[in-house]
Amino acid sequence: VAQFNAIQPPETGKLAMKWDGEWHITIEVFRDLGIAFAAVLILIYVLVVGWFQSFKTPLVIMAPIPLTLVGVLPAHWLMGAFFTATSMIGFIAGAGIIVRNSIILVDFIQLRRAQGMSLEEAVVDAGAVRFRPMLLTAAAVVVVAGVILFDPIFQGLAISLMAGEVASTLLSRMAVPVLYYWSEKK
Q1: Cβ of 112: how many Cβ atoms within 10 Å?
Q2: From the centroid of its chain, how far is CA 123?
Q3: Is pLDDT above 50 for 1?
Q4: Average pLDDT of span 1-18
Q5: What mean pLDDT comes out for the span 96-104?
Q6: What are the residue boundaries of the structural domains of the chain, listed by start?
Q7: How far apart are CA 173 and CA 63, in angstroms?
Q8: pLDDT at residue 65 is higher than 80
């Protein structure tokens, strides 16, 4: 067994076994999820550029994604849970929800501006009017993810979704309007 440690054994027909442990698999999974997440971020950026006809607006919309880590990492520590592959999947899923909320917020700002509001009024109005739907979405995610919170396999996913949504909903409510204001102020 020692001679095959961390290398692929010589081909013995059609079957082979690799003896290098769970960490190697974990590293490969995180690498693959990271690559997939990067590809999705690029795709989201391209789609949002197409929708809003701006190269700056998608950056404003995607800015709250890192804010989820403000909730995710401390929550894993508080729960005594490792950041696993399912945690990463929860982080990615939460990022999708936050991007959707940000798109709705920016779209509402632009709608109010098209109706004749000033930039300042539109930003404040969007933050106030769209907060309740954003909060309800986060609450729904927390309740649904709470069902799997104590499952040993899916606990990381639940922690990432719950803590990420709470943190980013509260932070993105302020961050997106402020960033949009700064990016559009002339």
Answers
A1: 19
A2: 23
A3: no
A4: 58
A5: 92
A6: 53-184
A7: 11
A8: yes
Q: Is 4 exposed, middle or buried (0-12, 13-18, 19+ CB in 10 A)?
A: middle
For residue 89 the two structure tokens come to 């999947």
Q: Is 5 helix (H, G, I), strand (E, B) or coil?
A: strand
Tokens of 21: 């442990």
Taking a C-beta distance cutoff of 8 angstroms, is the pair 148, 35 a contact? no
Instruction: Give the span between the Cα atoms of 138 and 160, in whole angstroms.
Output: 12
CA distance 185 to 177: 12
Question: Taking the model in full, what pTM does it have?
Answer: 0.80
Of 18 and 112, more confident? 112
Does the pLDDT of residue 172 top 90, yes or no? Answer: no
* Helix (H/G/I), strand (E/B), else coil: 12: strand
CA atoms within 13 A on the CB side of 126: 31
Q: Decide: helix, strand or coil at residue 118.
A: coil
Architecture of the domain whose range is 53-184: Up-down Bundle (1.20)
Structure tokens at 112: 């109010």
Q: DSSP string of 128-156?
A: HHTHHHHHHHHHHHHHHHHTTTT-TTTHH
Q: Where are the alpha helices (DSSP H) in the chain?
A: 21-52, 57-62, 68-79, 85-114, 119-129, 131-146, 155-184
- What are the backbone angles phi and psi of residue 166, rounded to the nearest 5°? -65, -50
